[in-house]
Amino acid sequence: AYVASRAANEILYPSAHPYHRPPIGTEDSLRAVRREDLAEFHATHYGPNRAVLVLAGDVDPDSAIEDVRRSFLDWPKLSKPSPFAVPSAPAPERPERRIVRMKVKSQVDVVCALPGISRTDPQYYALMLANFVLGGGSLSSRLMDNLRDKQGLVYGVYSTLNAGIGAGPIQIRAGTNPANADRTADEILTQVSRMHSEGPNSTELAEAVSYLTGVFPVRLETNSGVASQLLGAELYGLGMDYIERYPAIIRAVTLEETRAAGWKYLRPASHALALAGSYPESAPPGGGR
Question: How many angstroms from the chain centroid is the CA of residue 107?
Answer without folding.
Answer: 23
